Amino acid sequence: MGKEEISASQEQIQDLLFSREIGWKDIIYDLINTEQLDPWNIDITILSDRYLEKIKEYEETDFFVSSKVLLAAALLLRIKSEILINKYIKSIDEILFEKKEKTQTVFERIELEEEIPELISRSPIPRYKKVTLKELIDSLNKAITTENRRIKKEIINKNALRETGISLPKRKFSIKNKIKELYEGLSIHFTKNKEKVKISFSEFAKGDLDEKVILFSPLLHLEHSKKVWLEQENHFDEIYIWLKKTYLEKNGDPFADLKESQNTGADGSEQMPI
After folding, report:
1. Residue 110 resides in a domain
2. What pLDDT band is residue 274 in, cutting at 50, 70 and 90?
3. Which structural domain range is residue 185 located in?
């Protein structure tokens, strides 16, 4: 086997090893080993700094970094900032989930007649709590799962709002009054323009898209109640509106042959009208 074949096979092995997605737990376990950190007493400051350095290395080498890895980095920085501010940790869960609410202390002025005694602190000063690897992993895993659920819920809510935003406009009018108003408008138009026997829907329904949608439903009611006649030669073509009596005067009854065939039997005998 030549050198070129050996080098090609090594590249294939590296591709197989590094093609998978790096998890945030893998990075932490690797840092514990390489930095020789005590798993029973982890230095969060060192761990978070080295964690960010690892992410930068992966990004520079075009390695895939998942959102969970970045979220874990943000959570580690939150824990680190708590240490830098308070110099100690009570609970990781308390930092990540903010379980305890801060209560405002009301100070009262106390006047003493005698000399003020020397105050001695009896309670021990809060100390840095040891953070174990298991406690850190469990808390981060819980926080990441909670955050993912919140993000999914937020996405679902935004998608629902987006879908309702393109739905039909809400009806804020009486359909009965709208039908009456529409028929009166058509009657007035044809009375003023006697030379015109029909009008296109686009010309009559002037306004924005919402107004046209609102007018179309009452127009169908008028057609169903035989007040108007709607004419459309082909699908998606312009719709023309006639007054029903005007259309019958100009074009006759389009269903005359059908009615005649229904009133006449197969043997030519006259049948009772349906």
Report:
1. no
2. very low
3. 175-263
